[in-house]
Prior knowledge:
Distance between the termini: 23 Å
Number of helices: 10
CATH topology of the largest domain: Rossmann fold
CATH architecture of the largest domain: 3-Layer(aba) Sandwich
CATH superfamily of the largest domain: TPP-binding domain
Number of domains: 2
Number of strands: 9
CATH class of the largest domain: Alpha Beta
Bound molecules: nicotinamide-adenine-dinucleotide, zinc ion
Amino acid sequence: MITEKLLIRVKGASTVTVLTGAGISAESGVPTFRGKDGLWNNQQFEELANISTFEHEPQKFWDFYNWRREKLKNIKPNLGHFALVDFERHFSEFHLITQNVDNLHRVAGSKHILELHGNLNRNRCSQCSAIEEHGSDKIKVPKCQKCGGNMRPDVVLFGESLNQEILREAQEASASCEVFFSIGTSGLVEPAASLPYLAKANGAYLVEINEEDTPLTPNVSESIRGPSGKILPRLAILFDKLFT
Ligand code: NAD
Ligand code: ZN
């Protein structure tokens, strides 16, 4: 349910932070982590998407990532992603923190994005950190044009920690906002799972949009049940009215 209280808090807010997880891309056809799709439930995934596999068996690692890129090649943002582009226009400070690596928030047109787990479209050199924006696929083990080192997808692999600068920005954006939305995330993966609590501890109005209950649900100010591709466009229309 969308309450009057939420609309009042949004109208009075100049700083808003949104956290998204795999659920927001489900309606674009991207399987969620804990969904029905076998791959993500598979132990093998944790082995393949692992820093140690990249270091010791780069060919096997890249075969897997080329396959993943191939699967995500034709996906498009859904109405939920586009609604968040709309949200951004209304607030002087707006941050979109995402755990997704699928690039769909960028394609939709969101501006202030913090990609906590990186972006599958990009490559990064394992030696000199040079970035290649559109990582070429189907190449056996891509090499860095600057130093010749092995390229890797610019995502956080199992066995690695997050980019500390991006994490710090995400924590600041969470701690300083007036309204915080947690959308399509199971709230089980740290450190992202702690961000809504940082917001709440600093007085933010905490809103969860999810198809199911999560460990965060008992702690939110407001829980809106249902698919984000339907709820976010409804909210975007209400927000448009609030600010006109
Ligand atoms: P998760 O798979 O653990 O949880 C998905 C959540 O979304 C669940 O709570 C589910 O109830 C909810 N959900 C499913 N469909 C929904 C919909 N249409 N509308 C609203 N909610 C919906 O995802 P997570 O919490 O993001 O953690 C998964 C980890 O795996 C992350 O670290 C992420 O980087 C990675 N991952 C990324 C992608 C992607 O880039 N699209 C996809 C799968 C996993
Ligand atoms: Zn290099």
